[in-house]
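Homework help board

Subject: predicted structure for assignment chain

Our instructor gave us this sequence and asked us to write out the predicted structure in token form, then describe one feature. I got the tokens but I'm not sure how to describe them. Can anyone check?
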Amino acid sequence: MEPLPQRFATTRWSLILAAGTGHAPEAREALATLCGLYWYPLYAFVRRRGHTAEEARDLTQGFFARLLERDDLATLDPRRGRFRAWLLTALKHYLSNERDRLQAVKRGGGESLLSIDGEEAESTYGLEPSHDLTPERLFERRWALALLQRVTALLRAEWVQAGRESLFEKLKGCLMDRTESSYQHIAHDVGMSEGAVKVAAHRMRSRFRELLRGEIAQTVEHPHEIDGELRHLLAALG
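My token output:
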């Protein structure tokens, strides 16, 4: 197993626990980050359960608001398991409460903790497979895709900072596709040798795997759980 980089000493669990410490600016910022990461997988789950787009939007917003209102995150223990599993279970409990479902209120002192663009949400949901995916499987799939999108964004930011944005845009397709023709075309477009392009693509994939393992490390309690989560991620995408 590859050693975890030191930069991942501050884990996603730390972010989650910070979000439950109260209404301080850092706590609300942490919760806003969590909302950004997980709102759509949860929204898709609610929609697949049969709720309308408006209901799903209100329920998803209300769910995150309730997490802060009731300080549920403050009592969360990383030893209880993976955060995504806890979050989905908490949402199911929330939906099962008829009073909360009917009220679908936006809590948090009158402020909306999560602003969902209804058109964007439904546009994305309209692209979801319409068969063979239970609400739970759809949630897992969207969690996996959100994680890959986040890792790709982190990787892109590193290449932009290094002044290699143009090369990144050419090479990002090689994260999954290693065909020789891709390397040949890219080499021609960027004025590099095919060998140099292959080396750059190899380094990109290696860094992508490192970042992915690091992101997963932030959602589990022990490093030995990372490989299992990676397998789960690939299965969710399948």
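Reply (TA_rk): Your tokens look well-formed. For the description, you could write something like this. The chain has eleven helices and no strands. That's the kind of observation they're looking for.
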